[in-house]
Design a protein that fits this description.
Layout (H helix, E strand, L loop, with lengths): L3 E6 L3 H14 L3 E7 H9 L6 E7 L1 H10 L9 E7 L5 E6 L2 H6 L5 H20 L1
Helix pairs in contact: 1-5, 3-5
């Protein structure tokens, strides 16, 4: 199973990060965390990496429904969205496919949550393509 929903945007990294934030907000997600992988790996290991951030996106009503269905599902929250440079004028945006939750949990109630989260994340990614 593929666990990522991926698009490639013909735009630079910094403006794409801002567009991703806006697209997520339009779909009811807030960004709770941001991990700058490039800075972290450079500081801790002295290695170079393309611009690469992990945004921890959360839609509170969906998160609430998910933890009501399966308390352990918090291990998979928030929804991680990766934004990484792919050359000077392109950026890759990836979101963890919420259907992974359904495959890892026996809670039938998660199906509806995963379906809605998938729809909303797909809409956010699609907004970046246009």
């Amino acid at each position: 199973m593929s666990y990522a929903m991926t698009i490639r945007v013909s735009a630079g990294f910094t403006p794409t990060v801002e567009r991703v934030r806006a697209a997520l907000k339009d779909q009811g997600f807030g960004v709770l965390t941001e991990i700058d992988m490039r800075a972290t790996l450079h500081e801790k290991l002295g290695v170079e990496l393309e611009e690469y951030v992990i945004l921890g996106a959360c839609n509170p009503p969906l998160a609430h429904r998910a933890v009501q269905a399966d308390r352990n599902i918090g291990l998979l929250l928030p929804c991680n969205v990766v934004v990484r440079a792919d050359g000077p004028d392109a950026t890759v945006v990836q979101a963890l496919d919420p259907q992974v939750m359904v495959q890892l949990s026996d809670a039938i109630e998660l199906r509806g949550v995963a379906d809605e989260a998938t729809r909303r994340l797909r809409a956010a990614l699609d907004a970046l393509s246009g």
